[in-house]
Amino acid sequence: MKKLLLLVTSFVLGFVLIGCSGASKSEKKGIEVDSLDPNNPVTVKVGASNVPHAVLLEHVKPQLEKQGIKLDIITYQDYYVPNKTLNDKEIDINYFQHVPFLKNAIKENSYKIEDAGAVHLEPIGLYSKKVKDVKDLADGAQVLVSNNKAEWGRVIKLLASEGLVKVKDGVDPVNATFDDIAENPKNLKFSYENDPALMTKFYENGEGDLVSINANFAVDNGLNAAKDPILVEKATDDNPYGNILAVREGDKDKIVVKKILEALKSEDTQKFILEKWNGAVLPVK
Q1: What is the DSSP letter of 77?
Q2: Residue 64: how many CB atoms within 10 A of its CB?
Q3: 130-160: per-residue pLDDT in tens?
Q4: Which alpha helices (H) appear in 134-223, and where do they start and end?
């Protein structure tokens, strides 16, 4: 009887110890950690556009897990939800936007979000089913642009580079709107009320004479964002449209954020970007 009691006691004690051991390895979440442990990785929620953002995050995912960071990647087709979910602490980081877009979102919504560093540039392009050269545009041609105000200056700058429009003196092209156009020799008609995700559909349906499409939506819909546009943005040192990691204010220096940015900007990832998208997506050095 004593032997049986001793055996039962040992079993119960062992079960308790195993349970306690398992509890000590409870999953860590978020970016509020001071150190990383590959044996007990921290799970980080990152909101991203499908292409190229989520693709790049998947590329660095194994590398980061070896360092103690497990990425939970949440994809969005919408440009406006990711900042709200970040501000509301539903995700830890987002990766889908450039600085002018972020600044505009902060201005309109009072978000407490900041730029943690640029990773890549997606050149915006003007596509057409009707002309092969912008010089062939007819008088009164229709230009379809998304309702993303942060892209308007990019489109205007592209058109200005071909002499199709000229902005008012003293207006910063980054902040230019269609009301800032001082000269429009071909009387271009601008439509800018539609969601960015719909622009590829307008192009495929032959709507408008020019359709502005950001490279991530172009690539996601099977277009070659480097070759298909009749006019495309160039990657220059003064281009402010590098896509960034965004975090809540005060988080950009957290070890998790720095490690994720470091992985996305590594030589391996830069090589991956150039080989996979052949110029449609460009790494920010």
Answers
A1: S
A2: 22
A3: 999 999 999 999 999 999 998 999 999 999 9
A4: 149-161, 199-204, 215-220
